[in-house]
Amino acid sequence: MNAKLVAIYRRALEQNKVELTLREAVDTVGYSEKQVKRDMKMWETFGWVEYRPGKGRGHESVLRFQPEFDRTLRAWIDESFVQASMADAAKWLEWDWPPALREVIQALIWSRFGFEQTEEDRFIFPRTRALESLDPLDIHIAMEASLSRHVFDRLFEWDGTTVQSSLAHYIEETPFGFRCYIRKGVTFHNGVTLSAKDVVYSLNRLLDHGKQVWLFAPIERVESPAPYVIDLHTKAHMAYIERLLAQTPASITYQGAEGVVGTGPFKLEQTSEEVVRLRAFERGLRPRPSLDVVEFVTFSETDYAKWSTRDDHSLVKWIAEAGARYLVFNMRQSWLKDDAPARHAIQRAIQKEAFVEMGGERHQVAHGFFPEMSRPVHVPGEGTICQRPLRLLHLPFEVAAQDAALVATQLRTAGFTVETDTYTIGSLLQDETLCRADLILCGEMMSEDLDLAFLAFLTSELSLVGKLLANGVELRAMMDRYQQTDMSAWSMLHREVERYLTEEALVIPLYHVARERRFPSFFGDVPLDVFGHPRYDQLWIRPSV
User: Fold this and answer.
1) Which of 77, 82, 127 has its CA nearest to residue 102?
2) Number of other CB atoms surrounding residue 109 within 10 Å
3) Over the stretch 424-464, which tens digit does the pLDDT of each residue have?
4) Interior CA angle at 149 toward 317 and 135, to 5°?
5) Contact criterion met (CB below 8 Å) for 512 and 364
6) From start to end of 281-347, where are the E strands?
7) What angle do CA 272, 276, 278 make, to 5 degrees?
8) CB distance 36 to 25 below 8 Å
9) Residue-averaged pLDDT of the chain
10) Residue 228 phi, psi (nearest 5)
11) Cβ atoms of 504 and 379 closer than 8 Å
């Protein structure tokens, strides 16, 4: 069975026929007549169809479905699903099925998503896109950040209020900076024992090739005087260094298997565009997860939405995100970089309340990136309307498209000419994307360490704002003040930076997000991380017995 035969059968049903001409079949699937004929011979050997070649002028070749084909097709679905992987089954939904049969396949797939207990406890979860890299140095997306922290450990962990020891069990001040002592007996997922040389390699890799140069710049170099000791040469104070080493980019990985092998509670067993599979690590630093396998299968956004709102998804949690959806001006390649009056006119044309009125995950109007501190900031004078067209880019998802449509409408009402287009997550930071944008709609979800997440947002090469704005002289001077200011006073600096971004019309925060997460009822209570994703290492399920 294949997608071509299914699509041809659907067309026959829609036309209330049991047969189609060869020409109609070719038109339905978009393949050449030769290819379709080749498939027809195979279908005929299985007894699914009868093919009658046309003889003479005016007599077309005909494909006729056998009377019991619907039952045959349903039996094939049932039998094949037992043997099919979730990745293969999810691909079936890309076929052009008759609606009733598509619902059958959806129900079968939905029944397998969630908890599965055979010889091992498995949790299978749908996702709507292929994952980007899990390499800690490359991560700039919440889903990847969440999964990465299940695969890799760091020297320290930040729980939102205090620093906890992790791979490092002790740190002390020295004349050159700090000395950390590494736990003994920790092994990587490949069975190799962790030692100081692995920590030195990971941190030096971060310093040499990381995308958050400014944030980690206070660490001058890392050395190892003994097998389980590392020395950090720095003039920064301990509070900053400990929290810095708890960040995702400071995760400890294995040379030659960066982004794949760590010491975390799950090891990466398989990764592809179709599926990502994590397996519990028996000898991890933390207690072994109760789940044996966590698997993510690529699923369409529409099917995911239907699955997540099923009646048995009775456990609902709302996650108020730190960060905001925002509009950023392309201050590197757009004509707007030299036209502050036009930027201010755009700024005044945006009516943020209208976004929140659209509902959904749009929780409250944003004036900055910290929801609890969000206060209106003065917007300078009227500005001028420029007749040059504005190119607005947005992600190809439903919510982003709605936001872009509203931005475009508001700007057109104010007198601007606006063209909209989309970009993909993977292409956002590429020059090919940026060169065609004047304005870009994006979102920032900050990690659990909000202070450092905000600094990374402003300076990192993996942040759109950092890439477009970080080289500005005034902003750079403001950022340098952080390294001379005690962390207890950073909230004041945050406010000053947000005011600068607004008054100079560099960024327009639009709204803060509160995201709804729905889970099947058999979960019970679900521990969630700051990104709103389950803590899979703490998740367990009480099955019916």
Assistant:
1) 77
2) 22
3) 887 888 888 888 999 999 998 877 788 999 999 999 988 89
4) 125
5) yes
6) 293-298, 315-320, 323-329
7) 140
8) yes
9) 86
10) -125, 30
11) no
Terminal CA-to-CA distance of the chain, rounded, Å? 38
Dump strand ranges (E) for 431-536.
439-445, 507-519
φ, ψ (nearest 5 deg) of residue 417: -100, 125
What φ, ψ does residue 176 adopt, rounded to 5°? -95, -10
Q: Is 280 left (phi over 0), alpha (psi -120 to 50) or beta?
A: beta
Structure tokens at 222: 């890392």
Q: Round to whole Å and give the CA distance between 424 and 396.
A: 7
For the chain, give the number of residues. Answer: 545
Q: Can you tell me the distance from the alpha carbon of 68 to that of 358, in angstroms, rounded to the nearest whole number?
A: 49
CA 467, 242, 208: angle at the middle one, nearest 5? 45
Concatenated DSSP letters for 352-417? THHHHHT-TTEEEE-SSS-GGG-------S------SPEEEEE-SSHHHHHHHHHHHHHHHHTT--
Do 449 and 247 meet the contact criterion of CB atoms below 8 Å apart?
yes
In this structure, are residues 99 and 14 in contact, taking their beta carbons and an 8 Å threshold? no
8 A C-beta contact, residue 264 and residue 512: no
- pLDDT tens readout for residues 515-532: 777 766 666 667 777 777
- Are 443 and 326 in contact, with CB atoms under 8 Å apart? yes
Closest CA to 468 of 328, 326, 324, 327: 328
Query: What is the three-class DSSP state of 21?
Result: strand
